[in-house]
Write a structure and sequence with these properties.
The protein contains 15 helices and eight strands. It has 426 residues and is an alpha+beta fold.
């Protein structure tokens, strides 16, 4: 049986930390995208310097070596706290971190300079505990992103912090404020063992967390239309299949004469028109609704658990607001409009049929003058309207509406080149 002494454990910890630092650096060099990896790598590097300096401090007591060791460790831990903030917020509060690091180092170093090494040890351990617990809390605040992994990472930081607090408690209990020896007690041994396990576990979990975030980012990029920020066609149908509402309605939008916008005003302004419409659409829908750019100038919205009148209100709000928007082209303002088709409210499992219904209504909106909202209507709807006199449409009146419904019914039942293309895509 081989027993490891304190120095052997320090050497093992230094090699473990150096391996973690190297892994972070290599991962950052390979990706060149996630700056959190670099922050973790810098923190690990300072920890390696601290452990090496502390190993020398244990063998040959020197206030200077102790100051270097403690300051390097606190700076390294501050980098880990900064990485946690960077992970959650997307950026590091540099000024706050610098001020906190300077304050922590100052209150640790001053007692050592004045000859109160025991007070220095206590302050150092309390500062390390506070930084690690703050890091754990920072991760805890964003645990929703990956509950099990981030919760484990948070707990490991807190456990590491409490081990430093245990060291401070043992030193306070001893009451040796002036000493020329490094701390050497049961708490130091426990702290070193916990740090050895924590370093390896935190390094592995941090890399795993980064990989999860990268994978999700790639998935989001694959699902998102880069111009408008909405879901693309494939993502729309994939997410729609994952939803389980009992009843849904589908709205299909098509910007009128969009090819002319590109031809007359240029593709750059055409992109602005698309982005503007996507912004208006996003503002109009509810949380939980699914919006996508199906391709070109065509957009769709899936409305779960909604009444037909609500779908109509959303569609009309988008149509009206977009028609009022103006765009500047060579010192001249121009506008654009959108035609809209709305399906019936139907069962979620019949999504393809609802898409065809909305497309048929859109076809009629285009044929009947554009810049209007048309509800899908079958032959049965037309018959009921004739018998009861109840309006089921909104843009035309009298005989025009009756003819319009008949066109919708035929468009839904008879194949047209445009709808045939859509059906194949669905």
């Amino acid at each position: 049986m081989i027993l490891l002494d304190y120095n052997s454990l320090l050497i093992a910890l230094s090699f473990c930390t150096a391996g973690v630092a190297l892994t972070f650096f290599v991962s950052w060099v390979v990706s060149q995208t996630d700056r959190t990896l670099m922050t973790w790598a810098l923190g690990s590097t300072f920890l390696v310097v601290s452990i090496l300096a502390y190993s020398n401090f244990v063998s040959h007591f020197s206030p200077v070596t102790g100051i270097v060791s403690f300051a390097a460790l606190e700076i390294g831990l501050m980098f880990f706290l900064a990485a946690a903030m960077q992970f959650r917020r997307g950026k590091i509060p540099v000024r706050e971190m610098m001020a906190l690091g300077l304050a922590s180092s100052t209150i640790t170093i001053v007692p050592m300079v004045l000859g109160y090494a025991g007070i220095c040890y206590v302050v150092f351990n309390l500062a390390a505990m506070a930084i690690l617990c703050a890091t754990g809390f920072e991760y805890w605040r964003c645990r929703a992103e990956s509950p099990l992994l981030i919760t484990t990472l948070s707990v490991l930081h807190v456990i590491g912090g409490l081990s430093f607090g245990l060291c401070a408690f043992a030193l306070i209990e001893q009451g040796k404020w002036i000493t020329d020896q490094p701390p050497d007690d049961w708490a130091e041994n426990i702290n070193l063992i916990i740090c050895l396990g924590d370093t390896a576990a935190i390094g592995a979990l941090s890399l795993g967390l980064n990989q999860i975030r990268v994978s999700r980012r790639h998935k989001r990029d694959a699902e998102t239309d880069s111009l408008t920020g909405l879901f693309n066609r494939r993502a729309f149908f994939e997410h729609a299949a994952e939803m389980r509402p009992s009843m849904v309605a589908v709205i299909v939008f098509d910007i009128d004469h969009f090819k002319q916008v590109n031809d007359i005003h240029g593709h750059q302004l055409g992109d602005v028109v698309l982005q503007t419409f996507a912004s208006i659409l996003t503002e109009a829908i509810r949380e939980g609704d699914l919006a996508a750019r199906l391709g070109g100038e065509e957009f769709a919205v899936l409305l779960p658990e909604t009444a037909l009148k609500n779908a109509l209100l959303i569609a009309e709000r988008v149509r009206k607001k977009f028609s009022e928007r103006r765009f500047l082209s060579e010192d001249k303002l121009f506008g654009s409009t959108v035609s809209v088709g709305i399906s019936k409210v139907g069962d979620h499992s019949h999504l393809n049929d609802l898409m065809v219904q909305a497309d048929a209504a859109l076809y009629v909106a285009k044929r009947s003058g554009r810049n209007r909202v048309i509800l899908f209507s079958s032959r049965d709807d037309v018959r009921r309207q004739r018998e009861t006199g109840v309006d089921t449409g909104r843009e035309n009146t009298g005989s025009d509406r009756k003819q319009l419904y008949e066109v919708v019914a035929m468009a839904a039942r008879k194949p047209s080149p445009r709808r045939a293309r859509r059906t194949r895509r669905i």
